[in-house]
Amino acid sequence: MMEKFKSVAKKIIENSKADHTEVFFYRVKEDNTRFGESRITQNMAKDLTYLTLKLHLGKKTGAVQVTLSEDLKIDELLSRAMDIAKSSVEDPEYVPPVEKQDIPIVSRAFKETEELSPKKKAEVLKEIFEDAKRNNLKVAGLFTNGLYQYGVFNSNGLEAYYETTMASFSNTVQTETSSGYARDQHEDVRNLAPQEIYNVAKEKAIMGQNPRDLEPGQYDVVLEPLAVADFLVFMLWTMDARGADEGITYFTGKLGQKIFDERVNMYSDPMSPLNPSIPFDGEGLLLKRVDWIRNGVLENLYYDRYWAMKQNKKPTGRPFAMIFEDGQKSVNELVKQVEKGLLVTRFWYIRYVDRKSITITGMTRDGLFYIENGEIKYPVKNLRFNESPARVLSNLIDIGKGRRVVGEEASFAMYMPSLLVKGFNFTSKTEF
């Protein structure tokens, strides 16, 4: 597909009369098997390639997106984009396209993942459904496999290409009074274990039956990696240098300062085996390892190309492939350290309360358990929290073993540990 992308982009760029031309490709070849009530409810398949063309006239830009097909009319595409560019207003923050760079061509595509059939997935699910029925459980979720290809080309000579496959399995297991959730994903489907993922959700659902009321307040908590990912992503979205320079984020004036527990180390690296990802951003900028937080010290904030140019800095790209350096303790070992507290499976419905302090609110979901004297005593009904990642990362008791997760709040994978946190603030309770 690299050669096809390159050939189409070359024709477009050669025929363009704009000052600068950019061509972006995104192919998604994906199969989804959706299931609910312990039965398959839907099989879906798509294979589409999107082409986005951007033409720049001075500081004016015209953009057009189409589905790539064999009868692509390049002249019409260029004409439409040119008309839009001519009628657009100038962008005061315009930055010319990325210059030519040596970007490695990376493929993390596995034939076994791409060719996983609905029939094979149905065979796997059949065993799960039978077990659920034997245990009076209901299971619902999504079993996905796909091939994803990206290309960025421009009139400066830039050529960037990346491809990957991904197989993911997510499921919610329900009893009459509880639910459990688990998810995992791998580039190579041979590393994916749907039965084990189901068993994790099943155990949580069974443990969570007949939850008790618990008064809100501050509790020591063990946060599992899924909970950590959805919680911390709201901090990551505010780690931009521009926001800090303009005084509107928590990180204003804090660069180079120790702001978290010294055990907090966070970096992004698209080439890391812990969390491999695309090696360039949406504009084709090469992404390298960046240490964002080192020993609790804020080392870097992310710069887009405009703000980097304005501040005479190098652009960093956004920290999508985030890695939070972990410890060695399991969730159970962290639980054993808790005198009185809670085990949190994951959060949902998270929203900002105050972006400046990164205060957010949300609710627990799919498994909340009361801990006493190092043991899980009983399930409790879900609680709402008002809390800040900044406060949590300053109140760490311990850091457990991590894993690669994709939460509900962001579509990208992060490598997150489990955390033992002192005095997590819960503000209200629910009836479920």
Question: Share of helix among residues?
Answer: 10-25%
Number of strands: 18
Total of domains: 2
The ordered H/E elements are HEEEHEHHEEEHEHHEEEHEHEEEEHEE
Q: Kindly, what is the distance between the CA atoms of the first and last residues, rounded to a whole number of angstroms?
A: 50 Å
Number of helices: 10
Shape: globular
Strand content: 35-45%
Q: Compute the average pLDDT.
A: 97
Structural class determined from secondary elements: alpha+beta
- Largest sheet, if any? 7 strands, mixed
Please state the CA-atom Rg, rounded to the nearest Å.
Answer: 24 Å
> Segments where pLDDT lies below 50 for 5+ residues?
none
What descriptors fit this protein?
single chain, 432 residues, alpha+beta, PmbA/TldD fold, 2 domains, 7-stranded mixed sheet, 5-stranded mixed beta barrel, 10 helices, 18 strands, 22% helix
